[in-house]
Amino acid sequence: MDNVRIVSIGAAVPQKKLLSSQVSFESDETRSQFIRQVGVTEKRYSQNRLTAGDLCFSAAQKLLTEVAWDPSTIGVVILVTQSPDRLMPATAILLQEKLGLPSSCLAFDINLGCSGWVYGLSVVSSLMQTLKIDRGLLLAGETAVLASEDDTSYFPLMGDAGTATVLELSMHSEPMVFQFYSDGSQFEAIHAPNSGARHFADGGTEAAQKYRAQMDADQVLRFCLRDVVPNIHSFLNQLNVTVQEIDYFVFHQANKLINEAMRKKLNIPEEKFPYSIGQFGNTSSASIPLTMVTQLREQMAHKQTLLCSGFGVGLSMGHVLLHTENIICHPIIEVAIPEK
Amino acid sequence: MNCPLELTRFIALLASEFDDLDPNIIGSDSVYKEVIEWNSINSVVLSVIIEAEFGVLLEKEDYQKAVTVAELLELIQTKSD
Question: Which pLDDT score is estimated for B2?
Fold first, then answer.
């Protein structure tokens, strides 16, 4: 992908922290094991009072002000989320109006999770290049609305965050190189069974419970080590790029245990492998830009070679090799949680 | 039949990862899902250390098939051959 450049990245989270010590677990031992092994000490959680759309709105509004872009110059806005404000219409269209973007702006949602930012980056860039759109906005956000607070394995992991990435057409940008992979045969590894038309939850406790998301962490581990790691290897081999030539590997923050197993198999040094999961949990499609904003803010202002990899729900994965320069990452915004 | 040395090494490996596991009271007939508190984190931890040590990624069915520590090691060895 040529001629499209990431200009700036911002992120917003609910103001309130939820410490893992405040979350229900089967036992105290399981809690300390979760903190130690899965790596989540705290996360941001609004108890469903803020949506992914709200958080992305805050991030985008601040970002557009910081880069001094008139919202009327944005030609495309895409929101990557699996927790939209409504099933219909697409939340990106609501944000088009709320952000003051022009009615000529393309606006739609992409239903992807962990791999979503990489897919979104590819789609926004492709549209900008093909339709000659000068400026684009990629939003990626998630809230833990699909997680049941009673679930002691999935709920503690998932955090709320919204991010915004602004892009512009640029004749002088380095190419972005993508690779994608989908495997619908493993969809049950992470899914929300009654959340759509296939098994519509039309009331009742049991149906509502089945609406909730669930995850088979063993199956996710097998996917990561058996499919994602070799896929990244082949991506790097095809590009003739070595681990040493990459400054940072910005991976989806799935679970520290799984991410560490992947890091070791790929022989990536610890200092090249930033984590945001400790403070924010697994924030799905927001995790890659959130990690850049919170862990690599200063480094992103300089020339960097990054390998970003999103992998998970689908099952799906996407990688992108980025040669970036002067990406401005703004400090994270904390959004006040409205009263009920 | 597993060589005792390999079994001892395997038990030491488990003990190094699971803090509350005493290698002196675990034998070949110990049920690993009892000596290790079997939950969604520990099942992943066990898979990760087996993969790192033996290069074998066990399936969910494997954990249903192997009951004792010795059976688990035997299964790993069969798969790594």
Answer: 46
CA A337/CA A6 separation, integer angstroms: 30
Q: Is A140 exposed, middle or buried (0-12, 13-18, 19+ CB in 10 A)?
A: buried
CB contact under 8 A, A34 and B41: yes
Are the C-beta atoms of B36 and B63 separated by less than 8 Å? no
Chain A interface includes B42 (CB < 8 A): yes
Q: How many CB pairs under 8 A join A and B?
A: 48
Nearest beta carbon to residue A29 from set B37, B44, B59: B37
Domain boundaries, chain A: 1-340
State the Cα torsion A115-A117-A119-A125 to the nearest 10°. Answer: -170
The secondary structure element, H or E, covering residue A108 is strand A106-110
Burial B44-54 (b: 16+ CB within 10 A, else e): bbbbbbbbeeb
Mean pLDDT, range A3-14, rounded to an integer: 96
**How many Cβ atoms sit within 10 Å of the Cβ of residue A238?**
10
Write the ipTM. 0.86
Backbone φ and ψ of A318, nearest 5°: -150, 140
Mean pLDDT rounded to a whole number for chain A: 93
Query: Which helix (H) or strand (E) covers residue A292, if one does?
Result: helix A287-295
Q: A1-340 architecture in CATH?
A: 3-Layer(aba) Sandwich (3.40)
φ/ψ of residue B80, rounded to 5: -85, -10
Q: Does B29 touch chain A (CB under 8 A)?
A: no
CB burial string A105-120: b at 16+ within 10 A, e below: bbbebbebbbbbbbbb
Q: Which of residues 145-164 of A touch B (CB under 8 A)?
A: 153
- Give pLDDT tens digits for A231-260: 999 999 999 999 999 999 999 999 999 999
* Superfamily of domain B4-80 in the CATH hierarchy: ACP-like (1.10.1200.10)
